[in-house]
Amino acid sequence: MRIAILGAGSLGSLYAALLSRVHGVELLVHGQGPHGAHMTAHGLQLDGEDTHFVSNSDVFFSLEEVGLPEQSFGTIDFALLTGKAEQTSALALLAHRLLSENGMALCLSNGLGHAEKCIEILGPQRVFAATSTHGAWRPSAGVVQWAGKGQTVLGSLPGGPGETEAKPLLDALSSAGLEPVWSSDGLAAIWKKVLLNIAINPLAALAGAENGTLLEPDLFSSAFSTMLEGAAVARIERVNIPDDAELENLLRHVLTATSSNVCSMLQDIRAGRNTEIAVLNQAISLRGERAGIATPLNQMLTSMVKALHPR
Asked: For the segment 92-111, what is each residue's pLDDT rounded down to a tens digit?
């Protein structure tokens, strides 16, 4: 089975490192910038919850600045899109070139709207819903830190492939230790992850702290209140999400499991990169406005993150 990981930043590098050890999996890992260049030249080091070195002789690393080799076109069984929000359309176009006739794709990026973008480019019959709660960050180029174990959720979307089509990938993810779970309601799975992201990412980024800091009572209360605003929007859109008590338990569990993780929004601010606030809290506020639901906390966090880092 041939798997492509497109947009290999922190999360993509984690998945690449763990999948590289699975028998029968051939990997193409596509990155960019100093991190991608280091992987291409020297390989990838995994630290944290597990340690493993991925040699560039065992995995094919490609670089956005150089391009993909033509011999890889039409050969990939599963494409995992793991880049930032603004990269989704470009990565979906890469997936379109790489996927075999029956190949399928999924997007693990944070936020709302990614599955729709993939469907526009690839067609609904080739796209799974997907989310990840594994914690990962990059302390330096060519190194990824597995900061907290989580789950990988794959799910079906209207008109999309089902669990039977996903089984080879689910088996590979299981062998890699990435804890895959299948959901018959992919939209609900995406929203559940979004609710976690809107609660954790902006507050951790503004505090300049690891996820576990948000377990402090006052910060946890703010995070959970932000989550509940998003839950109200999801419910008005008729998304089947858990009740408030289960959401609170989920938030506490994820913060505990990823307590040492530096969230992606804080990584982006520190590195001077674009944040994903537009597809997280701002997207919640815009959807809430259309539905007539007030989302003051999400609006405030959006404004504060943009003021701190306006890109």
From this structure: 999 999 999 999 999 998 88
